[in-house]
């Protein structure tokens, strides 16, 4: 399968994965302890929405810009972030807590195979250079990880809610 086809599959996989988390993770986070801070549904869903749009944007850029482009590296860095996300926190949290962590199923069934195939195709088809990706990929992944708390805070500001960690039990119900 081609890099571009896999890129669009990646966007679809991320959308399904984020939908699973949007539905079940806020309630699960209340009892997750160190594995996830408690999050209010609206700020969390806002963050997931933005992250899903960012994934689709990276796919679109890669498709439009082609090989060795900013879009190709952004997409592959995002794929790397989602590949790491399979293990940390999903699989690790499920094993450590002895109960299902929302997102684990879609992470294993969709994100793991699609991101693995996407990164392989990117290298084989010349969309990214391996040496460059060794530093750009982690940089993009860290940038995405760093954006998550910022997006939570922005979601809290937009929707007037605070996370349960900040002591607002009412927001967890909204």
Short description:
By secondary structure, the protein is mainly alpha-helical. The chain has helices spanning 3-29, 41-65, 70-97, 104-124, 130-159, 169-173.
Describe the structure using short key phrases:
174 residues, 6 helices, disordered C terminus, 0% strand, mainly alpha
Please characterize this protein's 3D structure.
The chain has one domain. It is globular. It has 174 residues and is mostly helical. The N and C termini lie far apart (42 Å). The chain has helices at 3-29, 41-65, 70-97, 104-124, 130-159, 169-173. The chain contains 6 helices and no strands.
Radius of gyration: 16 Å
Shape, per Cα inertia axes = globular
N-to-C series of helices and strands = HHHHHH
Poorly predicted regions are: 163-174
Q: Main beta sheet: strand number and arrangement? A: none
Determine the N-to-C terminus distance: 42 Å
SSE order and pairing:
Elements: H1 3-29, H2 41-65, H3 70-97, H4 104-124, H5 130-159, H6 169-173
């Amino acid at each position: 399968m081609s890099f571009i086809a896999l890129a669009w599959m990646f966007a679809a996989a991320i959308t399904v994965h984020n939908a699973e988390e949007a539905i079940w993770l806020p309630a699960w986070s209340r009892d997750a302890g160190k594995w996830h801070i408690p999050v209010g549904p609206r700020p969390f869903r806002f963050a997931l929405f933005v992250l899903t749009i960012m994934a689709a944007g990276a796919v679109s850029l890669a498709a439009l810009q082609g090989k060795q482009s900013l879009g190709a590296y952004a997409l592959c860095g995002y794929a790397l972030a989602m590949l790491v996300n399979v293990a940390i926190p999903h699989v690790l949290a499920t094993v450590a807590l002895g109960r299902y962590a929302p997102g684990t199923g879609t992470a294993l069934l969709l994100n793991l195979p699609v991101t693995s195939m996407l990164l392989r195709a990117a290298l084989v088809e010349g969309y990214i250079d391996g040496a460059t990706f060794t530093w750009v990929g982690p940089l993009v992944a860290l940038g995405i990880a760093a954006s998550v708390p910022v997006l939570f805070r922005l979601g809290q500001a937009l929707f007037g809610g605070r996370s349960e960690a900040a002591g607002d039990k009412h927001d967890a119900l909204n």
